[in-house]
Amino acid sequence: MNATKTTTRIVVDWTACDGRGLCAELLPELVSRDEWGFPLIPDPAVPAALRYHAERAIAACPRLALRLSSA
Amino acid sequence: MTILFGDDVQIDGAVAARGALMGPSPASQRELRTHLATHGAVPALGAHAVVRLAADSGLAGHGGAGFPLHRKLEAVIAARGRAIVVANGAEGEPASAKDRWLLSRRPHLVLDGLQLVARATNATDAYLYLNHRLPVETFSQVLDERRRAGLDPVSVTVVAAPDAFISGEETAVVSHLSGAAALPRFKSPRVTERGVRGRPTLVSNVETLALLALIARRGAGWFRASGTADAPGTMLLTVGGAVRAPGIVEAPHGTPLADVLDLAGGPSTHLQAVLLGGYHGTWLTTDEAAAAKLSRSDLAPLGASPGAGVMVALARGTCALVEMSRVMSYLAQESAGQCGPCLNGLPRIASQLKSIAFQGSTAFQGDRRAVDELLRLGDLVVGRGACHHPDGSMRFLRSGLRVFATEVELHLAGHCSRTSDDVALPLAVTR
């Protein structure tokens, strides 16, 4: 059993992101938008309770600019 | 052939050595026979021996990030697929010329080092990624001569780096060598795993490779005899601005910054600040610079690092805000334009800084909100890009706002301390 707890984080590929904003609509608990429309994610750690919503937001991104990273 | 430093100053205008890359004579070693007479041949080392030398010597990268070479080597060795090695001589930083000096005066040390990392990683392809001002043909001739002499078992391709600040960024190098534009890319997976054309790739600064070539001949113990325990060896620096002999110097890690300035002839006038690490670097007050040493651990509390060895001394009488404004406009223009916050934010920051630097009379009437807005915009770009261009640009700006706080107050009140129209910080030739 691994004792270290892995944190799942939401990561933006800034070269792909166009600021369409679907992530902020689908995951407002974690994501808002800056004045140019690009995602603002003050704390990228995804709590277990939001995992499903985070995955939906990632799948909905038309630019495929979001992913989850476990590190 | 004349190789230029900046627009008009020759690289060999001034050189001072306290190390083996330059010393004992700064004369050119471009001729293969001069190189061999000075340094001897590279001993025959197995792959494992090269990695051991990199680890035992403590050699870290000289491109700015200071990542240990042996860890990069191990990552490439552990990755699946035939490896590719790259000597990175892009040197996109306008205030830096040390890589150009090294490539034009010590090309064989760099190329020896490239063969050593090729051996260590069992690479089948090698590239020399060359600053846009250096002549590709000359280096192709150098490589032909080496091949005929049997020095290069792995064939090396010379590729010109585009003239851009970020063209030497590791993922930009990999993109360019894969046939795309020299633009940074998303950092996952790492280039050591999937780099040029999807193959495991080692990208190493040319100075790091030249040092490895010396270590292979003289041993890890020799390298550790200079420098500090946590940063062994020497580094090349480009010292510019208000010093008597601007140019390239070599100094051991741990050397007091004041001694580095002295290697470049010492200050030519009273200084108001020192910029360390170039346009992604950190401003230091003269007191801070007088007390600091050229070492990562020493400089960390000041938010600074030796970086890629750029030092610029700023004379009194020069308006630091005007200088910073010119540089921030340049950095905004050098955004690759791929990442929204950088593309949108840096021009806004540059324009806001310009309004403070060049404001007329009492435009702000002492109101600090103009500076607060600058910092707020800065917070919107830091950490929000594929590369560190926004982060580095803001390190430069924020440290300057701290060091030049008095000048900022003057400007907000409608004044400027400038007594000279001299331009202190070099920029790249406008494209």
Explain how this protein is built.
- The complex is a heterodimer of chains A (71) and B (431).
- Chain A has helices at residues 22-26, 51-60; strands at residues 8-12, 32-33, 39-40, 66-70.
- Chain A is an alpha+beta fold and 71 residues long.
- Chain A has one domain: 2-Layer Sandwich (Alpha-Beta Plaits), CATH 3.30.70.
- Chain A has a two-stranded antiparallel ribbon.
- Chain A starts with 7 loop residues before the first strand and ends with a strand.
- The model of chain A has no long low-confidence stretch (mean pLDDT 92).
- Chain B has 431 residues and is of the alpha/beta class.
- Chain B folds into 3 domains: 20-224, NADH-ubiquinone oxidoreductase 51kDa subunit (Rossmann fold, 3-Layer(aba) Sandwich), CATH 3.40.50; 234-315, Roll (Ubiquitin-like (UB roll)), CATH 3.10.20.600; 320-412, Up-down Bundle (de novo design (two linked rop proteins)).
- Chain B is 41% helix and 14% strand.
- Chain B has helices at 32-39, 47-57, 69-78, 98-105, 107-121, 136-148, 170-177, 206-218, 220-224, 257-263, 286-291, 296-299, 320-333, 340-357, 369-381, 389-403, 405-412; strands at 4-5, 9-10, 15-17, 84-89, 125-130, 156-160, 201-205, 234-241, 247-252, 271-276, 282-285, 310-315.
- Chain B has a 6-stranded mixed β-sheet, sandwiched between helices. In chain B, strands 6-5-4-7 form a 4-stranded parallel β-sheet, with helices on both faces. In chain B, strands 1-2 form a two-stranded antiparallel sheet.
- The longest helix of chain B is centred in the last third of the chain and has 18 residues, at 340-357.
- Chain B is globular.
- Chains A and B meet through loops of A and helix 14 of B.
